[in-house]
C-alpha cells in the first residue's frame, strides 16, 4: 500500500521558504537529476506552472504565489505531505525511462487531488524526488507543499479525515498509472533460439552474405535471390520432375548443383555421393 506521510504544520514563512528550496534542490548522485523541477496543482498554481517553461523562473513564481496567499490570512498555516510508493511500485517506476516515469507520477498527483472534494479545494506546489544514485536503488516519491489558502480563499485545514481521502486517491491513481504500463518482470520469456554452435554453416553463410552486401549491394541481391530460386529447384522442383519423367538425375549432377548453391557441407556431401555411387554400381553388377 502507498502511504501519504504528513509532517507537522507550522506558521513560519522562513521555514516554509526553506521547505520550498529543499524540494527543489537537485540530487548530485542521480544522473540527470541535478536540476529538479517544481510544478503546481490546483487551478491557479497549475495555470501558472504551465505558463512558465523555465524551471528556475517557474519555482520563483510559484513561491511568490504561495506567500501572496499567506498575506491574506491572519495566521497562515503551512502543511506539507510526502506521497510515497510501496517497494514493488517504486521498482516499476524506477525501471521506466525517467521522463516517462515522471509524467506518470505527475498524472497520479493530479488524479489524487481531483478524486475528492477536499483535494479539489487545496492548491500548492510539488516536486518528484528519486533518492537513488550510484550503489542505491531509486525510490521515487513526491513532496507536496500546500498553500495556506484554499482555492476559495479560506484557510486550509488537513486533519485525519482529509488525509485518508488523499491516501485513498493516491493509491487509486498510482495503481491506475501502473496498470497502463507493462510490467517487465512479468513478461513472457522470449522463444528459445538455437545457439550458434548448432548451426555453424548457416552462421558462416550469413556472415559471408553480409560482407558481400556491404561491398556490392546490387550483385549481392541478385546472388541471394538466385540462390534461393536454385535451392527451391534443387530441393523440390528438380526431384519432382525427375520422378514424373521417370528419369533419375545422376548423383554427380545433383551434387554439383547443391555445391554451387552453397546449400550443403562439402565434405559430407562428397562422402555421401561416393558411398551411394558405390552401392549403385554393386546393384548394377548383380543384375
Task: Walk me through what this model shows.
With 287 residues, the protein is of the alpha+beta class. It has two domains: 4-183, BirA Bifunctional Protein, domain 2, CATH 3.30.930; 196-286, no CATH class. Helices cover 58% and strands 8% of the residues. The chain contains eleven helices and five strands; from the N terminus they run E-H-E-H-H-E-H-H-H-E-E-H-H-H-H-H. It has helices spanning 13-24, 43-51, 55-71, 87-95, 98-114, 117-121, 160-180, 200-215, 217-245, 251-261, 266-286; strands spanning 4-6, 38-41, 80-83, 124-129, 141-146. It has a five-stranded antiparallel beta sheet, with helices on both faces. Helix 2 (43-51) packs antiparallel against helix 3 and helix 5 (98-114) crosses helix 7.
Q: What share of the residues lie within helices? A: 55-70%
Shape: rod-shaped
Order of helices and strands: EHEHHEHHHEEHHHHH
Radius of gyration: 36 Å
Please count the helical segments. Answer: 11
Q: Which class of secondary structure composition applies to the elements?
A: alpha+beta
Q: What's the total count of β strands?
A: 5
Report the β-strand fraction as a percent range: 5-15%
